[in-house]
Amino acid sequence: MDNSISIKLGNKDNNMNLFQFHWNAIFKNGTHIFQFEKNGTEHRFAEIKDRFDDLVYFNLTNNAGKMFTVNLTNGLIGYNRLEFPYIESIDKEKTNVRLIYFRRNRVEFVLNDLKEQKHTVTYHLGVQWLDSQGNNRKIILQISEDGSFIIEE
Fold first, then answer.
1. What pLDDT, on the 0 to 100 scale, is given for residue 29?
2. Which helix (H) or strand (E) holds 117?
3. Environment class of 37 (CB within 10 Å of its CB; exposed 0-12, middle 13-18, buried 19+)
4. Rounded Cα distance, 87 and 71, in Å
5. pLDDT tens, residue by residue, 11-61
6. Could you tell me if residue 40 is inside a domain?
7. pTM of the full structure
8. Number of domains in the chain
9. What count of other Cβ atoms lies within 10 Å of the Cβ of residue 71?
């Protein structure tokens, strides 16, 4: 069965060459789901969505060693840390904590022949929750391919 990695593997047209960051998820029972297994199997994000209630950590990592982590127990986002040792207890002000994750593709074309000139991917990673007054709050990081980021609200 083909997946997005095996299709045209080694060819510069392979869509997966565009993705600098890959995700992995850690659940309450300690199991992990990696977006790409070593054997070439690709897991779809829908598998994570099916288990949102059990999700504890969601990580985006790249080959340069940059890692962004969403801690869904405490509703926090970390950079280059999986654990948050400075947190002693769950923030009781945050309820209904949810993960936000999506990618945006931007393709630039040459108008004369409609050839693709540049393709960039931006990752959006964040957390959403209800505060003590019942207001919906969220923080989203917009992460570029090189790992630099800005904070959206």
1. 95
2. strand 115-130
3. exposed
4. 11
5. 344 444 456 899 999 999 999 999 988 888 899 999 999 999 999 999 999
6. yes
7. 0.78
8. 1
9. 21
pLDDT computed for residue 114 by the predictor: 73
Q: Please say whether the beta carbons of 91 and 75 come within 8 A.
A: yes
The span from the CA of 101 to the CA of 104, in Å, is: 10
Quick: pLDDT tens for 65-113.
899 999 998 888 989 876 665 555 555 688 899 999 999 988 887 777 7
Does a structural domain hold residue 11? no
Check: CB of residue 69 under 8 Å from CB of residue 81.
yes
Cite the DSSP H helix spans in 19-143.
46-49
Does the residue 10 lie in any domain?
no
CB 95 within 8 A of CB 105: no
Mean pLDDT over 104-133 rounds to 85
Sign of CA dihedral 142, 72, 55, 128: negative
57 contact partners, CB below 8 Å, separation of at least 6: 25, 26, 69, 70, 71, 72, 82
In a domain, 5, yes or no: no
Calculate the CA dihedral of residues 97, 125, 54, 41 and round it to 10 degrees. Answer: 170
